[in-house]
Amino acid sequence: MISDVEGKFLVELARKSLETYIKEGKTIKVPDDISPKLEEERGAFVTLTSDGDLRGCIGYPEPAKPLAQAVIEVAISAATGDPRFPPVTAAELETIQVEVSVLTRPELVEVQKPADYLEKIEVGRDGLIVEKGMYRGLLLPQVPLEWNWDIEDFLANTCMKAGLSPDCWLDEGVKIYSFQSQIFSES
């Protein structure tokens, strides 16, 4: 777990990172005097919204980089590299809200039969990754709450995010991973 102070720092770091990149085309460096927890490798996502609407969301589901470095990189990617949206412009920066999600390591949800997922996954606590062959989709824990989904809706939408049929979670050979996240936001 990271503290609220560390979370606030990460949100400010994400904001500074995307503003510096959009206005100056430069990537900021990780400050020298950061908490040791922010140097640990962790998964992280940065979500950008504008007037409550999604404007970009990119992240590392696995702990691939030190957390502060990951936040800098995914903040820039959320603003400039989310294929669902055009790049954020300097004029939009005032309306953008920044949210940082710090993830636990994804763990395989082990079940005897697919119906058991309904008992093992908790909406609001778990984020999901659905994987089948080369297809992979991820939804953060806050997504089903925002859309008022139950567990089956959450599973179906994660399958569709992976480019698979909504009921693929019932298929043999599908792997489902869960993770949790701490969420820190400007708002």
Question: How would you concisely characterize the structure shown here?
Answer:
This protein is of the alpha+beta class and 187 residues long.
Number of strands: 8
Largest sheet: 4 strands, antiparallel
Q: H/E series, N to C?
A: HEEHEEHEEHHEE
Query: What is the first-to-last residue Cα distance?
Result: 21 Å
Name of the CATH first level of the largest domain: Alpha Beta
Instruction: Please name the CATH topology of the largest domain.
Output: Glycoprotein, Type 4 Pilin
> Which regions have little confidence, pLDDT < 50, spanning 5+ residues?
none
CATH superfamily of the largest domain: Hypothetical protein ph0010, domain 1
Based on helices, strands and strand pairing, what is the structural class? Answer: alpha+beta
Percentage of residues in DSSP E strands: 25-35%
CATH second-level architecture of the largest domain: 2-Layer Sandwich
- Overall form: globular
Taking all Cα atoms into account, the compactness measure Rg is 17 Å
What is the arithmetic mean of pLDDT? 96
Measured as a percent range, the helix fraction is 25-40%
Query: Order of strands across the widest beta sheet?
Result: 2-1-3-8
Quickly count the domains. 2
**Tally of helical runs:** 5
